[in-house]
Amino acid sequence: MAPHPELEEQTDESSARIKRIVDAIEDRADRAWLKQQLAYSHLPTFADRLNQLLDQAGVAFVPYHGSRRQLVKVIKDMRNMIAHTRDDLERDPSAMFRLASTLDLLLRIVLLREMGISDKFCDARVSCHPQWSYLRQVLPEVVPFIFTPDT
Length: 151
What we know:
mainly alpha; 2 domains; 8 helices; about 0% strand
């Protein structure tokens, strides 16, 4: 079940827009292809969903990245590499493990925030936990590119 089922439904406005765009295509095969491509265009992208999670996590997650844009890009690329079984000669198992741990932490913080736990309490708990303290130390070394400032 989707976390926000209301977001999964296509609005009448979105359906009408897609129909108008698809109907404007003359070639039948192109029209069929475009209709398939636009079928889920109303849904948030993976990057949108990651940004929503980062918004929900609040200040407790800030020390685990410097560049939100880079973090989202790296996680999206890692997910695509795994989901689409792409070979990547640059694949670093240590970096992938640390990024997976970072996602684990992000989801834990979001769950705490969803339960009504304050930013201050989440930050305090994460800061004193040995696993997350260690992660905070090694991330800049293992995945330094997520700490470059956004421009």
